Amino acid sequence: MILEKIESLLKEVSEVSASNAEELEALRLKYLSKKGEINALMADFRNVAADQKKAVGMKINELKQTAIEHINALREQMETKNDDSEELDLTRTAYPIKLGTRHPLTIVRNEIIDIFSRMGFTLADGPEVEDDLHIFTKMNFAADHPARDMQDTFFISQHPNDVTKNILLRSHTSSVQARVMERTQPPIRIICPGRVYRNEAITARAHCFFHQVEGLYIDKNVSFTDLKQVLLTFSQEMFGPETQIRLRPSYFPFTEPSAEMDISCHICGGKGCGFCKHTGWVEILGCGMVDPNVLELCGIDSNVYSGYAFGLGVERITNLKYLVSDLRMFSENDTRFLKEFESAN
């Protein structure tokens, strides 16, 4: 009688299945727990005749082992299925995903770095979260300069009684120049590419963050003529050998004299068009001779050394090269827009 029951359970155990963890646990409890079917057989085993105990005992062990192996196999199968389902993204497009391309800002930034590197400039980098000392004070900004106001700059912490303790997101990469000058004696020839932040409304023509590349050259007997030649070389390398430049007087706290530089419009060849507002010229950067006060504040003797500095916006240069009309497109990650630059990589 007991052998027939064991054989029936063997067939039953071999055919059971489970579709989830709850059903699997229910099977384990049914057959292998203390109150399960197999343990109940052990209670009946006491009433088996002595000459049959060996055969019955072997069958019970076979049943128990079969139950353990089958339930373990169901568990492994379920875990494998779950692993496969986790890897399957049901929201993924059915089409093959193509490799991306370099961002247009990265393409242009790398080109700018390459041009200045060939002219002997080395890369310098600094923190994006800066202090007032390196952003404003060492760059010769007056204590009441508008750039120190909250409507122009993103402050992280402010100290009204001591502005030199202010912490802010850098509004230009000139802070990198200050850090290099205070720890390095001339000659210094660096470019400082990086992201900067200004408290401006986001529109097609402006953004609260953008990218700059600033340059600095300090040595003995550096002149404005050296600056002009470097900028002319850069412009012709970037926009073509026919490009012309012009320098217009301007004002920056950290340079004196200061200038803004225009290039001849490469769209119309300087003849005048809508892009250059029919002037034939497009502004691309600001520059000037480093103010002696900046040199002294950074620990460099202005009686011995002189230098020039310049700064240009990567977005501005990218607009000129690729005629992108809306600055917001650079930060929206629209793949349709980014695919337009595949050939530029």
CATH uppermost class of the largest domain: Alpha Beta
Measured as a percent range, the helix fraction is: 25-40%
Instruction: State the end-to-end CA separation.
Output: 81 Å
CATH homologous superfamily label of the largest domain: Bira Bifunctional Protein, Domain 2
Find the count of extended strands (DSSP E, 2+ residues): 10
Total domain count: 2
The global form is elongated
Low-confidence region ranges: none
Structure, explained:
It is a single chain. The protein has about 350 residues and is α+β, with helices and mostly antiparallel strands. The protein has 2 domains: about 1-85; about 105-345, 2-Layer Sandwich (BirA Bifunctional Protein, domain 2). It is about 40% helix and about 20% strand. It has 11 helices and 10 strands. It has helices at about 1-15, 20-30, 35-45, 55-85, 105-115, 130-135, 175-185, 225-240, 290-295, 315-320, 335-340, and strands at about 120-125, 130, 155, 165-170, 190-195, 210-220, 245-250, 255-265, 280-290, 305-315. The strands form 2 sheets. A 7-stranded mixed sheet has the order 1-5-6-10-9-8-7, sandwiched between helices. The protein is elongated. The protein starts with a helix and ends in a 7-residue tail after the last helix. The model has no long low-confidence stretch (mean pLDDT about 85).
